[in-house]
Amino acid sequence: MKKERNFLIMLFIAALTIRLLFSFYLQQFYFGHFEFKYADGPQYLNPVINLINNGEYRGDAFLDDSRYFRPPVYPFFLGIIYLVFSAANLDYVVAGIQCLLGAFSVILVYYIVCNISERKKTALISGIIIALYPFAILWTPLMYTETVQLFLILSMIYLASNKKISIKSTIMQGALVGLILLTKQYMALVIIIPLYIILFTATLTFKKKVIHLCTLMFSFILVLSPWVLRNYMSSGKVIVFFGKTSGLRYALDDAVAFGQFANKFDENTTEYIKSVVETGSVKFVKHPVFLAAHRKDIDAATKLAYQCGGSFLEARQHTLPGQPPYRNCNQEVVRKFDRLSQQFWQEVPFWESMETRIDALWKIVSKSDLVNKNLRMSKNDLLKYGLFKYRILLLVLGFAGMLNLLLREKQHQQKVLTASILITAISFYMFFCLILVSAEMRYLLTPDLLISLFSGVIPAELFGKISQRLKICINNVT
Known about the structure:
Elements (H helix, E strand, L loop, with lengths): L1 H30 L9 H14 L18 H13 L4 H28 L2 H12 L2 H5 L7 H15 L6 H15 L10 H9 L5 H30 L17 H10 L7 H10 L8 H6 L1 H14 L1 H8 L12 H18 L2 H4 L1 H12 L14 H28 L3 H25 L4 H12 L4 H21 L1
Helix pairs in contact: 1-4, 1-5, 2-3, 4-5, 4-7, 5-22, 7-8, 8-10, 9-10, 9-20, 11-16, 12-14, 12-15, 14-16, 18-20, 19-20, 19-21, 20-21
């Protein structure tokens, strides 16, 4: 017991040290400079700053949707730090606290794997692998939700990995899922884990399963309800997920509608949006029969977006932050592209229409030619190549470890726990390729780590066999 505690203390200190070193000394070698608030950072901070200063949780002074765009958990996390430590120290304190959360997440990984596999060496190897996982370290200093959401998710899985199911644990899991949804909406997919465990645990009677399911949903809804009630009182609508305009003046509904249409031809719409902004035209390559039949409608919709689409105008003319959005024809642009999207699904054969989704799935899994340009990854191609290949290696090891537990372990509950995590990870990947179509590396962090939880299973078995062979050889020699 004492030996295990010492190992965990060393693992925690190592994980914390690595994250602190990267956050405050080494990140410049990756990003090219020190970065704490990048891109989405102010969008999480602004609503709670406005709440503190003006009494209204709102990200933009001119857009009503900005009251609902960023769910409150991470902004309130930032707001508490802001109130306690002031704006001058905010970046550094947030990075430091997220380093601590990242290190605690590594310890949670150890306990999760230990609970499921019942092998401490396997759990320790998995903990070491996650402690060194580069893409988890990368997001630690940045004002993004990833570190906090991962800590909440692993906390929920830790509770779920306890083979003894209790009402108290179910209540806490439901509450955590609610907090996870209020951190980043699509992360609520993790509710699959407790649902799956409750449904397929053999020791629970039908009556107990019903009780646990109701308890889970009740605690989840209880945590979620203040946000939904606040939104209803403010807008007269039931708003759980953010609206179509995303609450951002430079990502209005015209660009969303265009992007949804463009995604049918390519999983990456950045160049298409840029083409519309600059020239008012766009050239798609896939699905030539559909393009030929609707060329006039596509050109007309694209030209209209160029002429008076709010986000395209703003991207071209750069409205100052203090100015309201342009008067625009967004409703007409949305109507035209939504109609084209409906016609696409009606006219293009199913398997042909899924081509882009399949491409997206391959790129999501392999990241073969998708590099996060927004975060200005290192120009060292060898580094990027190595990191992405290392990611694939961990996914292979993790998946192999899951199969090992599913096929070789005799305990039914071990298989239930492992299968619940595997199905949840696959659900995330399917969501990214079918709904979002494309995904940044930070989006993939959660499903990647769900798989990589079990990356220590195969190495632990190999090390065990090698050590046994060595012992036999030494005994034979002596």
